[in-house]
Every structure is written in structure tokens, then in C-alpha cells.
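TL;DR need C-alpha cells for one chain.
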Amino acid sequence: MKQLVRMFALVFVVSLLLLSWTNYLNTSEGYSGENTLTIYNWGDYIDPDLIDKFEQETGLKVIYQTFDSNEAMMTKISQGGTTFDLAIPSEYAIEKMKEENLLIPIDQSKLPNLTYIDPRFMNLDFDRKNEYSIPYFWGTVGIIYNSSMLQGKEITSWNDLWDESLRNQILLVDGAREIMGMSLNSLNYSLNDKNKEHLQEAKQKLQSLTPNIKAIVGDEIKMLIANEEAAIGIVWSGDAAEMMGENENLNYVVPKEGSNLWFDNMVIPKTAQNIEGAHLFMNFMLDPENAAQNAEYVGYSTPNAKAFDLLPEEISGDKRFYPDPQLTDKLEVYENLGKRMLAYYNELFLEFKMYKK
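>> reply
TL;DR here they are.
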């Protein structure tokens, strides 16, 4: 027992020494909470050159970390083990983070470039008056398809995916809200539906799609679709734009039954250590030239009206990625379902994935 206690004591002492050494190295290099900025963002969701430019202009060192789902992001921030100065969640996650007191109010007086944001992307239901979040990107969920692999067949509806001729031709993103929402919309239900009978019906309809599903995947869907490993994918609009840039046979459509209109905004988590730096970064990304550069690199739609004017016509004029308000007004924004209902969505999606196997 004494040997065991000594061993744990030794491990504890070594851990403290390593932590002290790390802090010493950071200090010796001039990095501390005041002159570093830790950003938590989706993967491949910013032009790396802009991070370099921001560091050069401000003298701040950016520490950049990524997440692959809103749920993973919220869990890490709520646990508080890692300090993030700025994060970029989606609208329903922002609403939930506000409820759980995980966000710091934004001082808009420090964001002179906020005037460039198109008013239709401000003051939305999930964050009235934009007290806690600033627009970053927006887009839709839809279907990308390879017309050559489908012998010229066009896809216009979610229900087209159940065609028996599409056996083993469809890739789905690994997202409960996206895929359950797709099935709900195909039944003419809301993608925020809380009726358990409707949700069970949606799950059963998804299970009937199984013969046509090749795989349920993550970010690799972009490579697989571009390389013609499958003819159809359920994707976010920006990913579709990137794929279409690599393969001229691809097209993207928002199904006629409706779909998701989403917004990703910049926020300051409650545990931020460099609030001033977070405001500097927000204002930097709101600069029209920077926002336009970012939109060209990432492929998603910018909410920055001045940046939109700076984009090449082949981007700004593409109605698939910058649809008219007549279409976007018909689409639905994800609502915060609450813990229990979100868990139920996840449970049904997991049952569907297990059925697929």
C-alpha cells in the first residue's frame, strides 16, 4: 500500500512539474491569456491565411481547435476543462448555451464592422438583438447528386431518394437533426416536430431507405461524392459548393418539401480569458474583404452584405447557395428541442443506424 501511495505521489509531482514547465514555456515565448486567443470552430471552416493575417495585425497568437458537432462543443465548454475565448456554434446550440449561462454578452460598440451585416441575418429568434452572437456563415441542408451517374435523372424532392433504382447510391451525413429532419420533411412534418408518433414514423421511413444507403459518414462525404464513390449525398450547402468545384457533374438542390436554414454565429464562452481579443477577432472577420475571402475559401454563404458585393459573380449569382428570400422564408431553422427531446431524436437516429448495420 505504501508503495502504491508513493507511486501516486510521484505521478502527481511529475504532473505538476510538467504543467509548470508548459506555463514557463508559454510565458517565455510571450504567450499568456492576454496575448493568446483560443478559438473553437468547425473543421476546415476558416481560411488559414486569415488567421496569419490576424496574428500579424494584432500581435495575438491564435490557438485553433476544432469540433465536429454542436453537442460535442457544448459538452466541452460546459465542463470547463479547456478555456475558449471564441466559439462558432449553430443557432439552436446558441439558444441552449444562453439558457445554461455559458455565454458572455457581446459589446457591439467594439464591432464597428457589424454595420456590414445584412439586416435579415440580425435579430433572429435564437438571439434577439444579437446580445450573445454575431453572424459568421449561413446555409441550407439539401441533396447533392451526380447527374452523369444517374443517367440524367434530376432530384427535386426528398421522396425521390426512396426510388428503387438508387440502391446503394446514397451517402448520409452522420447527424441526427439533419437525417431525422430529412425524413420528417419527406412526410410533410416539421423538422422540429416533437410528436413521438410522427418521429417513430420518420424513423420507420428511414429504415425503409436502407437498401439505397451506401454509408453514413462524416467529413469524408466530400471526397467520396467528388470522386464518384456514390451518386447522391445529403449535405450542407457549403460542402456541396466545394464538391461541385471538383466535379462538374454534380448539382445541389433544396428539396421542394422544405429543409433546414441554418446559421453559425460567433460567441464568447463564459470561461473566456481574452474577451478583448475575442472582440478584435469578431470585428476582423466582419471586415468585408476578410469576410469575402473567407466565403470564397470555405464555400458557405456570407451574411456580410458588403462582402457579398465583393464576391465573383459566379459565386454571388448562384441561387443554389444564395437563394432568394422567397425560398429561405419557407425553410425552417432548428429549434432548441430541450434535453429530453434531443435525446429522443438521438436515440431514434441510433436505432436507425443499428438497423442499417
